[in-house]
Amino acid sequence: MEKMWNGGSGIKSAWIVVDLVNDFVSGKFGSQRSVQVAERTGEVIGKLEGSVDIVFTMDTHIRNDPEFRVWGEHCLQGTESSELHKSVSKYGGQRIRKRHFDSFYESDLDGYLRAKGVRNLFISGISSDICVLHTAAGAYFRYYGINIISDLCASIDESSHDTALEFMRKYYGARIIKAEEFEKEIAKWQV
C-alpha cells in the first residue's frame, strides 16, 4: 500500500520535483550548482522514497516550440536532453511531461494530484526564478498549500534565486524550508 505523508493534519502532501532534466542539470542550462541540487535531491529521495508521493515534472518541447524564440532549442522531445538526470532517474515517482514554465498549465499534474487527494505541495527543482516560481503560482491559483525546499532549488542565473524565493513567500504564501526540515517533517508524521 502506498504511503502518503499527511503532515498529521489529514491533508495529503506530495513533492513536486521540477525539471531535473539533463538540459537543466548538466546540459545547455546546467551548472555545478544544478548538479549539486540534483545529487542532493537524489539523496533525499533515496531516504524518503515510499514515504511521500513524488512527482517529477519534465520540460519537454516539440520542434519549433514558440518558447525557443526566448530560450533557444532545449529539452527536445525524444532526446536525452528532456530526460531525468541520472541523479534522480532511478527513483520511482510519477513522471509528467510539460511544455510551459508552470508545471500545471496544459499538463496532467493537477488531475493527478486531485485524484490522489493531495492539497499540500513541497516544490523543488530548477529554475527557482522560472519553472519553480511559475509552478508555485499554478499551485497558488489552484488553492494548494505551498512549501519551497530552498536548498533543493537552483536558478539558471543564481543571482535570481533568493529574489524568487522571497517573491514566492510574499505573493503566494509559500513557506520556505530546507531539505533537512522537510526530511524531519516527513519522518515525524510517518505511521
Automatic annotation (TrEMBL):
GO MF, any single term: hydrolase activity
CDD domains (UniProt xref): cysteine_hydrolases
Parts of the chain that traverse the membrane: none
Signal peptide stretch: none
Highest taxon of source: Archaea
Alphabetized Pfam families for the sequence: Isochorismatase
This protein's UniProt keywords: Hydrolase
Residue stretches making up the Isochorismatase-like domain: 13-180
Name of the protein described by the UniProt record: Cysteine hydrolase
Species of origin: Oxyplasma meridianum
